TrEMBL record:
<comment type="subunit">
    <text>Homodimer.</text>
</comment>
<feature type="domain" description="Aminotransferase class I/classII large">
    <location>
        <begin position="33"/>
        <end position="349"/>
    </location>
</feature>
<dbReference type="InterPro" id="IPR005861">
    <property type="entry name" value="HisP_aminotrans"/>
</dbReference>
<dbReference type="InterPro" id="IPR004839">
    <property type="entry name" value="Aminotransferase_I/II_large"/>
</dbReference>
<dbReference type="InterPro" id="IPR050106">
    <property type="entry name" value="HistidinolP_aminotransfase"/>
</dbReference>
<keyword id="KW-0808">Transferase</keyword>
<dbReference type="InterPro" id="IPR015424">
    <property type="entry name" value="PyrdxlP-dep_Trfase"/>
</dbReference>
<dbReference type="InterPro" id="IPR015422">
    <property type="entry name" value="PyrdxlP-dep_Trfase_small"/>
</dbReference>
<dbReference type="Pfam" id="PF00155">
    <property type="entry name" value="Aminotran_1_2"/>
</dbReference>
<dbReference type="GO" id="GO:0000105">
    <property type="term" value="P:L-histidine biosynthetic process"/>
</dbReference>
<dbReference type="GO" id="GO:0030170">
    <property type="term" value="F:pyridoxal phosphate binding"/>
</dbReference>
<dbReference type="GO" id="GO:0004400">
    <property type="term" value="F:histidinol-phosphate transaminase activity"/>
</dbReference>
<keyword id="KW-0032">Aminotransferase</keyword>
<dbReference type="InterPro" id="IPR015421">
    <property type="entry name" value="PyrdxlP-dep_Trfase_major"/>
</dbReference>
<keyword id="KW-0028">Amino-acid biosynthesis</keyword>
<protein>
    <recommendedName>
        <fullName>Histidinol-phosphate aminotransferase</fullName>
        <ecNumber>2.6.1.9</ecNumber>
    </recommendedName>
</protein>
<keyword id="KW-0663">Pyridoxal phosphate</keyword>
Length: 366
């Protein structure tokens, strides 16, 4: 039996299922236009500086990329003001999560994470045979006190997704500092800040200075969300150079490619584009929030580029919005909707209004 060949835990997992393509959905539902609001991609694309940099790209396709991502490393080090040795790059943040899991986890260990939170933390822990301790969020927020109680001497990683995907909520600076003071020094706390650039809350923690205080802390960032480079697959971790050096053993030698490295460097040179996207996103979030409040819909306050709408009919709401031309992401207790362009947001709210005004109102109650 081939099943006997693979690690037992693979049998309890499913391979990542990409959603239907836009083309498939257009054909199935006979729609001309589809707006994809399912993966938190940047609806404004990326900076023009990226296309310019790629147009000048020297086409030495036969050569391997710089495995150390030297230019990107220098540029990011300057951007976040850390030692270049404090950085590790991945083919997307997804790969950095895999590298950390592969490097730290064994069947004797466990991880502590929120639920719901980003699915990859759990996936890699299960593959490594580690125990997964999921602590339910409270009103969409990390329950830090309960998470602390689940930490024991075998806890290798505590994952904090800040802001949290899919709920959009955040851990503030005071709570985070008090949490870090109480986590044992031999447990790694990983702060996944994939949506960092979108945050506007004034008490959101500035975590970079905390790295000097805690060498069991790592911060994760990505070019996939606000920088609009999801197609290039570039993300990075920031941590103690000693830890990074150890993680580097697990990293594949040429994991980030030359195009991605070039695109990411160029993206960092366009702060104006980034701020433009952040402003537009905030307007979209505000409009969505106002709509939910006006209609007494259950939702979580979001600091990211998506919003979580509570419903116990997530799959039906997903199907209905699909028929109206919107792809969103269903979860067990609600749906996550990416904030799109102004006109798309407006059309989406009209569709939701239409659902509320008609027989399908029950789809939006929780
Ligand atoms: C999107 C996302 C990632 C992965 O991003 P990539 O860099 O595209 O791999 C990681 N963590 C969270 C919370 C995300 O939402």
């Amino acid at each position: 039996m081939l099943k006997m060949l693979v690690k037992n835990q693979l049998l309890s997992l499913k391979a990542y299922e990409p959603g239907k393509t836009v083309e498939e959905i257009k054909n199935t539902y006979g729609l001309k236009n589809i707006v994809k609001l399912a993966s938190n991609e940047n609806p404004y694309g990326c900076s023009k500086k990226v296309s310019e940099a790629l147009a000048n790209f020297s086409a030495e396709y036969a050569l391997y990329p710089d495995g150390a991502a030297g230019r990107l490393r220098e540029r990011v080090a300057k951007h976040v003001d850390v030692d270049p040795k404090a950085l590790i790059f991945g083919s997307g943040l997804d790969e950095v999560i895999q590298i950390i899991s592969r490097s730290l986890l064994t069947p004797q260990s466990n991880i502590v994470m929120a639920a719901p939170s980003f699915s990859q933390y759990k996936l890699h822990a299960v593959i490594e045979g580690a125990e997964v301790r999921e602590v339910p969020t409270v009103d969409g927020y990390h329950d830090l006190e309960s998470m602390l109680k689940r930490v024991d001497p075998n806890t290798k990683i505590v994952w904090l997704c800040n802001p949290n995907n899919p709920t959009g909520t955040y851990v503030n600076g005071t709570s985070l500092k008090s949490f870090l003071q109480r986590v044992p020094q031999d447990t790694l706390v990983v702060l996944d800040e994939a949506y960092y650039e979108y945050v506007t809350a004034s008490d959101y923690p500035n975590t970079l200075p905390l790295l000097a205080e805690y060498d069991n802390l790592m911060i994760l960032r990505t070019f996939s969300k606000a920088y609009g480079l999801a197609g290039f697959r570039v993300g990075y971790g920031i941590g103690s150079p000693d830890l990074i050096q150890l993680l580097e053993v697990t990293r594949l030698p040429f994991n980030t490619n030359r195009l991605g490295q070039t695109a990411a460097v160029a993206a960092l040179d366009d702060e104006a584009f980034l701020q433009h996207c952040v402003r537009k996103n905030k307007n979209g979030l505000d409009a969505f929030t106002a709509f939910c409040n006006k209609n007494h819909l259950g939702f979580y306050p979001s600091q990211a580029n998506f919003i979580f709408l509570k419903t116990d009919q997530a799959n039906s709401l997903f199907e209905l919005l699909l028929q109206k031309g919107f792809i969103i992401r269903p979860f067990p207790n609600g749906v996550r909707i990416t904030i799109g362009k102004e006109e798309d947001n407006r059309q989406l709210l009209l569709s939701l209004q239409d659902i509320l005004d008609h027989e399908s109102r029950h789809l939006l109650s929780s």
